[in-house]
Fold Isoleucine--tRNA ligase.
Amino acid sequence: MTDSPAEARDYRSTVFLPKTPFPMKGDLPKREPAMLERWAKLGLWQKLRAQSAGRETFVLHDGPPYANGNLHIGHALNKILKDVINRGAQMAGFDANYVPGWDCHGLPIEWKVEEEYRAKGRDKDAVPVLDFRAECRAYATHWLNVQRDEFKRLGVFGDWDDRYATMDFASEAAIAGEIGKFLLNGSLYRGLRPVMWSPVEKTALAEAEIEYHDHVSPTLHAKFRLLKAKAEDLVGADVVIWTTTPWTMPGNRAVAYGEEIDYALVHVEGVTETSLLKVGDRLLVALPLLPAFEKDAGIGAHTVTRVFKGTELEGAIAAHPLRGAGYDFDVPLLPGDFVTTDAGTGFVHIAPGHGEDDFNLGRQYGLPIPETVNDDGTFTHHAPGFEGLHVFKAHTAVYDAMRAAGTLAATGKLTHSYPHSWRSKKPVIFRATPQWFIAMDDGNAIRTKALKAIDETYFVPDAGRNRIGSMVAARPDWCISRQRAWGVPIPVFVSKQSGEPLRDPEIIERVVAAFRDEGADAWYKPGAAARFLGPDRDPKLYEQVMDIVDVWFESGSTHAFVLPPRKLPFPADLYLEGSDQHRGWFHSSLLESVGTNGVAPFKAILTHGFTLDEQGRKMSKSLGNTTAPQDVLKQYGADILRLWVMNTDVTEDQRIGPEILKQQAELYRRIRNTLRWLLGSLEGFSEAETVPYDELPELERWVLHRVTELDAKIRAASEPHSATRFAWTGVYPEIHNFCATDLSAFYFDIRKDALYCDRPDSARRRAARTVLDILHRCLCTWLAPALVFTAEEAWLARFPDEEGSVHFLDYAFVPEGWKDEALAAKWAEIRAIRGAVTGVLETYRREGAIGSSLQAKPSLLLPMEQLNLLTPQEWAEVCIVSDMEVHRSDAAAAGAPPAVGFNPAPGMKCARCWRVLPEVGASAKHPTLCLRCEDAVEALA
């Protein structure tokens, strides 16, 4: 038997399958650069600024990255997060101008140029300073341009043509002007204090330039013979100190004790074979620390002659352990409230030039501060017997000299956390040198004002408030001078007669004007002193300060030469950087602005964590576990990297690696497929099809309710005045979940039948396309801050326009009236019941009883309160079956899963919609179609 012509007819061409030029494959590495070229040709940034004129402003002030090398994954995370926040604010209706910037001065660049010199056998000190600075400027310019291109490739939107850099002449002039403000208000002073000093880089370092690593230090127990004491039995006894810096012994000028500590006078009666002590020694050690000292020094039998409080040591005088070898001065014993019994011996040797506590105690008691160490870490002639020796190689010589003097009690090693320069990665020392400081607690009251400003700042997360607050509360005066060449000089002259700096506003004005025209190089040109001092002062009578200012002061001043000069509001709405910047840029910006303006330069601070590998380890080239953003762009494209940023909790440390990127690519695929299906199903849609909200079916109104929920979340994160501003964590995962679960797996799944098979003018199909139109507009604008390239592609696929862009738009308008909590609760029940039905059908499908759900006609037993949720026909639509029976169940308990029965659907399969219905075959003209499909086909004829 052969099929009749009617039976053999192919109806596939009558089905409204999705059609769109938007491809399934993103191919982002190829498409994104073309999109960037299009935006540049369109002048998108400039047009957006013109379009935004008159709006309320939002300014995220860019913390400047350092112009030194290619971008790493931390840079990418930081700039992408900034970009999403800026774009979100823009689409929320604000004028979000963003001026990216760079930090260009300082040691890392200077160090790189010096490395090039060393490789060529050149002596940096023999190079004229202006030539050296020119090479540093060229190096910074090169990497600034490289990084700018890399940031733009990430899709970061900003005023790249008018970026700022700390080495711009206008910036250098403004920095000099900011220093001048501190000079004129009296907060800037020169003082001798111990600072962290890098012997390798020959400069003072700030706390923010220090990182701590494990370090093995040689230890020393030394004996100070008491020459004078109130108690006769203490004279001739040896005070024992312990230190992890034997090299500081030449700088010793006192010994500190604790007034309330219990000290033991110990008589040694036996020693081990390797001990440096001898029988008969009389030693003073803190009683709680005696057991540990016995072990370290090899003491056997001994007698504690007596125990006494530290107050008995008042006025005591000791001999330096190297007395007779150039150290023939008395060493006083002084009370120190920093002395504890946590470790050591309960006595602390005091070298006023090599420690904060030492220096303060020395200043309190008028101790001399000998300059025993040179810039390069070698001993000066003020360290007799050790001159020219490097401090980190001096412990053996110190041991030998003290062994010869009979004052060496014990030696050892200790592994502990020790400060290192974050650039050279080498250990630093504490060294007292004349430096320039900004006072924290003078009449300007910077500390008090800064703490008040912290209280008034909005923090994300709020834990940042306590972190920066505790640092500001405890910090010493700010050392802003550096002994280098590449940077902005501290434009100060000091009177050789009085030693006081000149506080003359006219000098500052001349300096600022010169720097604005010629850059800071003007300070180093011949005749600079006479030029800036003016005709009324003799340059011979003044010292021209040649130190440069700390780069943290420079970057902390960026608000002064970026915000007001570009007519941007001050304070900025937001500062955003990694959590390490509580002691870095946030900190220096706060102190600088409070010192010159009396207020913080920011209204809010957002901090993100660090980027780790997939195992939670710190990334390092030696481990081979780094993820380079350049490699991600080549393999996946920028939108995948941007999606990774927005799918992490940025306030915590993030992880990234090959497997995580694969997961992000899969999440992206689902979002892209959602957009593709939307676009395909909207082919030919026009405003004439639109169905008013009041006429929409419940399912469509439920989708619009979900739209209101998502819209509220994205606006709450985007709008700078909302209670949860900048809280983007979780927003894009929820959008993905909406696309994958609410839309693709539920709404689209249900409405495919109506969209593909209903006649074009059916109310149900028009209602669905009305909602799809809204979804497309909302999703494109919601995704635009994060998936900048994909959102643009999805927008232009539907609205092709050479002059158009999704990035010109605000978020789509979402009426408050779409919100319907009661409807949401009802459809939550419906989805739960649907899940029970599809679960049963899946079991029968796996067993081979049916091939698809359309071959079933399930029965559903519901309690009375759920019986009227939907009609049987609506249940069939929702569960994607051909028919459904719904019966009341008096036995069903409240909240219990519904009872679902399985029955095969009676009838024949429609050749067009594939539903199995008894009515198929009833039409003489279209015997293989159901009545709905016959009507649709005839409507197309």
DSSP finds 27 helices and 31 strands in the chain.
